[in-house]
Amino acid sequence: MGISAQSLLIGALCSSATARSHDLLHRGGKVLSRITKGENVKLLLGIAGAAAILVGGAAVGIQAGHFNTETPVPRTPEADRPIGGYEGWWNSTPDSGSTESLPQETVTVNTRTGKIIDAFNRAKNSTLISDVDYDLVPDPSWPANSIVIIDATSGLVIEDFLIDDRGVPFDENGRPIDAAAG
């Protein structure tokens, strides 16, 4: 659903604090009527202490939610991000560690610009375009406004997907992936 565990925890804490506060106010009203008659001072002090703890806990939880130190995972290639390019089965390593059936060198071509924008050389574990031996010859059969992943050894397109003008892939509903989150 795209909701972090921290946000769920904070929401649960706030919901619980609200329910407890309403319960304490209801009971407090009954106790207050007894106290005006001189009864249950200890009970009133206990309720006031519990309310203070709940309010303090909710404040700490809300404050902690504003200091999220997790770095968002980049979804689109940009030069100023620590990891650029597109990731997929073609440039990953399976859990088994066997890369025998995977391409050894790939290039990523943006068909909007007709340029190689990314590369992967498995033997060198490199993403430098200069480490992949491939001469780009744009093919008119490549889908327009897309990213094509090419096996540099065979020259075959092994993956392609539509992108917007920023290079952001579209989801299954035809929306840019970063728009689905917002």
Strand order of the largest sheet: 2-1-3-4
Shape: elongated
Fraction of helical residues: 25-40%
Number of strands: 4
The gyration radius over C-alpha positions equals 29 Å
**Ends distance:** 13 Å
Mean pLDDT over all positions: 78
In percent, how much strand structure appears in the residues?
5-15%
Largest sheet: 4 strands, antiparallel
* Class from secondary-structure proportions: alpha+beta
Number of helices: 3
Name the poorly predicted regions.
Answer: 71-83
The succession of helices and strands, N to C, reads HHEEEEH
Topology of this structure?
Layout: H1 5-35, H2 41-65, E1 105-110, E2 115-121, E3 146-151, E4 157-162, H3 177-181
Antiparallel strand pairs: 1-2, 1-3, 3-4
Helix pairs in contact: 1-2
What can you see in these coordinates?
This protein has 182 residues and is α+β, with helices and mostly antiparallel strands. It is built from 3 helices and 4 strands. It has a 4-stranded antiparallel beta sheet, with no helix packed on it. A hairpin with a 5-residue loop joins strand 3 and strand 4 (157-162). The radius of gyration is 29 Å and the shape is elongated. Mean pLDDT is 78; it is low at 71-83.
